[in-house]
Amino acid sequence: MNQLSERVILVDHPMVQHKLSILRDKNTSSGQFRQLVRELSLFEVYEATSDLALEPVHVETPVAMATCMQLTGRKMAVVPILRAGLGMVDGVLDLIPAARVGHLGMERDHDTHEPHEYYAKMPRDIAERDVLVVDPMLATGGSCIAAIEYLRRLGVKNIKVMVLVAAPEGIDALLAADGDVRLYTCAIDECLNEDAYIVPGLGDAGDRIFGTV
Ligand code: PRP
Ligand code: URA
């Protein structure tokens, strides 16, 4: 893990870099792509939860009493930005099975690259939960910023964003749009192209996860 600034964390474990290289390859199959997205999300959420608060607990082992540590039980939610964010949910739930899942549908307009919200369903107590927004790609940042604005309107205070690949343009926009959010990413790429795709990136994450290429 590489803390690039107070709010940007690069998850660059060798296993992550290796799996991301396979993910980027245009010849990687949809099934393998989906599996890799899940595995990378598990590595990433492990890092994104490294600051969770602990409290002491007394446990009776078969040998003696032990004073151990357990999570303080702060409630969490994972919010995938549909569609591609769905591919990251199972990896997060592998580590945090008790997390609730809120769904937020966003689609970028092909010409303007502006996000259009088409679906939202959140846990009723979302305002009391720590929220992990997940989406493999942070390009212009528009979809992620719209998701955070939506969650802030609902009263969510603690938001972390997990992406797999980010463009510098998207990172700058995200940090400027919200003063508190923390970003976890497995890579920071070079730039965006004229279609607002990340270069070198990995193409259209949603299409590759769901085989709609
Ligand atoms: C992709 C991606 C992000 C968004 C990133 O979704 O999964 O949500 O674009 O671009 P941005 O940072 O410029 O907003 P897309 O709109 O293609 O929908 P999909 O997940 O259904 O494929
Ligand atoms: N959405 C994607 O899926 N890929 C990109 O490179 C940009 C937006």
Automatic annotation (TrEMBL):
Residues 11-212 form the Phosphoribosyltransferase domain. 5-phospho-alpha-D-ribose 1-diphosphate binds at R83, R108, D135, P136, M137, L138, A139, T140, G141, G142, S143, D204. Belongs to the UPRTase family. This is Uracil phosphoribosyltransferase. Allosterically activated by GTP. GO terms for cellular component: cytoplasm. Pfam families: UPRTase. Its EC number is 2.4.2.9. Gene3D superfamilies: 3.40.50.2020. One of its GO terms (molecular function) is GTP binding. Pathway: Pyrimidine metabolism; UMP biosynthesis via salvage pathway; UMP from uracil: step 1/1. It catalyses: UMP + diphosphate = 5-phospho-alpha-D-ribose 1-diphosphate + uracil. Keywords: Allosteric enzyme, Glycosyltransferase, GTP-binding, Magnesium, Nucleotide-binding, Transferase. Its cofactor is Mg(2+). Uracil binds at I198, G203, D204, A205. Catalyzes the conversion of uracil and 5-phospho-alpha-D-ribose 1-diphosphate (PRPP) to UMP and diphosphate. Binds 1 Mg(2+) ion per subunit. The magnesium is bound as Mg-PRPP. GO terms for biological process: UMP salvage; uracil salvage.
